[in-house]
Amino acid sequence: MSISVRNTGTDKVKIDETIKAIEPVDAGYYAKAQARLDTLTKPKGSLGRLEEIAARVVAISRNLKPSVKNKVIFTMAGDHGVCDEGVSAYPQEVTPQMVYNFLRGGAGINVLARNVGAEVIVVDMGVKEKIKADKANNFRDKKVALGTKNFAKEPAMTREEALKSVLGGIEVFNEAYAGQKIELAGVGDMGIGNTTPSSAIVAAVTGEDIALVTGRGTGIDDTSYARKIDAIKKGLSLHKPDPKDPIDVLSKVGGFEIGGIAGVILAAASKKVPVVVDGFIASCGALIAFEMCPAVKDYMFFAHQSVEAGQLAILRRIGHRPLLNLDMRLGEGTGAALAMGIIDASVKVLNEMATFGEAGVSEEA
User: Fold this and answer.
1) 200 close to 151: Cβ distance less than 8 angstroms
2) Residues 39-92 pLDDT 10s
3) Catalytic member of 85, 208, 291, 332
4) Quick check: is 332 catalytic?
5) What does the CA dihedral 226, 230, 231, 237 come to, rounded to 10 degrees?
6) Strands 118-126 and 275-277, how do they pair?
7) pTM (global) more than 0.85
8) Which domains does the chain have, with CATH numbers?
């Protein structure tokens, strides 16, 4: 089942084609995977969620001996006009500075991705300045505009730009997949001020109280926190985004990197690739993808529980439990990288652990 975005034009057609290619995961593969897990040299169910993860990877990939060796994390970057309201502890100049840090391999995401053998692809979805990275093979330019508008005063973007951001994510995944057949994808973010549009999206879609889904982001003080809540209230009151139309919500109070994350998730699901969702902002992109096509739910693994309260509202709406809770709030895809190690381990248990018969161990208690 899918909910088609309401618009015309080529971008909509291409997005709808991706959504139509997303199939429900195969329940028969779940059963086959669990049957093998139950024959391994351990008490049934004793590896807990590792068994659940392995069975879901089998069902997603339609492969009884899946591989997740080829891992790619997409770190989507964009700037936000709502920063003009004084909602962040850092200036927007930090966004391009961190993009260059990613490209040099010096950021947290680079360290943790190397630890699990994942490639990091950095995507400019809407950074305020031009990123000069022509020689960087891990950079992709899908810039929609030089940052969003200040949604406390006008819509963050046009509907066409919202569609373009989602399509940019679809394209960047498909281009990488064509080159290396990705087996496990991850999504992360970079964008000063992006917890503000994320909280606005969550409040718009779920109807939950703004203050309850709005956190302190990078650590803002009480004054900035009050401005943040006020900006979200203004944006939602002024633009009245339609909770039943995820593209309308994205266009009025969202961010380009959030749309790009949604696009990566949709594309991964269309290619039967599991995708690991990082923290709050990435989960917000997952929410947009889910509202566009509920079938993506079973293709996603939520990496960790963010300290941002808005993510809990997303998890409740989609019906997922995160794999980790390490009090993280960095973003970038760092939590996704850590969770990839757990998913890799679960698949190795399924593929490499001996059965009772193979090991000559008695199954009787």
Assistant:
1) yes
2) 999 999 999 999 999 999 999 999 999 999 999 999 999 999 999 999 998 899
3) 332
4) yes
5) 160
6) unpaired
7) yes
8) 10-65+351-359 (1.10.1610.10), 71-342 (3.40.50.10210)
